[in-house]
Design brief:
4-stranded parallel β-sheet, 8 strands, single chain, alpha/beta
Length: about 230
């Protein structure tokens, strides 16, 4: 389970905890973790780059495959926001290792925003050159983070994956517009199932939309990972 930018292994409002319990109840193990420079992992946030996240994602797949309780032939990825982007690119880099891919509100917008528009969530990134960092909700982002994104090609890498893909995205998401999930749909030759959730924001912050998010995810993984796809 790949958490989002500046988040941690529980995800917002415990979404990954809730999802893990649902999956466990149906016989699917879940592994969550804090990326480096996030949560309880080592490193300061100012040292974080997306390339580091991708590198860690690849190593995490190898680690999970080595666990005794894991069937390496039935390994799936779930990613939220920027973690969804990382999941899509990891699947593209390891297409033979990943059985299924699910993304929640993938934030593929961040490269366009930063590299082309020079903004991050509506705020100019030009101040980085003056102050030496970008103040992201009291967390410092370094100039290296922004320079790194010039070499990130999200869809080109993601398109190398040919397995089942599910994308769940709210139509009221102002942080990661749903148009970027629609582009994911177009680049996957095998197709991708995009579930558009009315009224859902990036935070999935109401009971009805959170319920739909969790149930749709459970349905997808039950179908792709279990021999018997019936949900009790």
């Amino acid at each position: 389970m790949f958490h989002g930018f500046s988040s941690n292994r529980d995800e917002a409002f415990g979404s990954f905890v809730q999802m893990s319990r649902k999956l466990n109840h149906h016989g699917i193990a879940a592994v969550a973790f804090d990326y480096g420079c996030h949560g309880e992992s080592d490193g300061e946030f100012i040292d974080f780059t997306f390339t580091q996240e991708l590198r860690e994602s690849m190593k995490l797949v190898s680690f999970v495959e080595s666990l005794d309780f894991v069937d390496e032939n039935r390994l799936a990825l779930l990613g939220m926001s920027l973690g969804g982007v990382a999941a899509s690119m990891t699947a593209g880099k390891l297409p033979q290792d990943i059985r299924a891919l699910c993304m929640w509100s993938p934030a593929a917008v961040f490269v366009d925003e930063i590299v082309k528009q020079h903004v991050l969530q509506g705020r100019s990134t030009e101040r980085v050159a003056r102050s030496g960092y970008f103040d992201f909700n009291s967390l410092k982002l370094s100039p290296a983070f922004f320079d790194d994104l010039k070499n990130i090609h999200i869809y080109q890498t993601a398109a190398q994956y040919s397995g089942p893909v599910a994308i769940i995205h709210g139509d009221a998401d102002s942080i990661a517009p749903i148009a970027y999930s629609e582009k994911y749909q177009r680049i996957y030759r095998q197709g991708a199932n995009l579930v558009e959730v009315p009224g859902a924001t990036h935070a999935w912050n109401s009971v009805p939309v959170k319920t739909m998010l969790l149930e749709e995810t459970l349905r997808f993984f039950s179908k792709t990972l279990l021999a018997d796809d019936r949900i009790d």
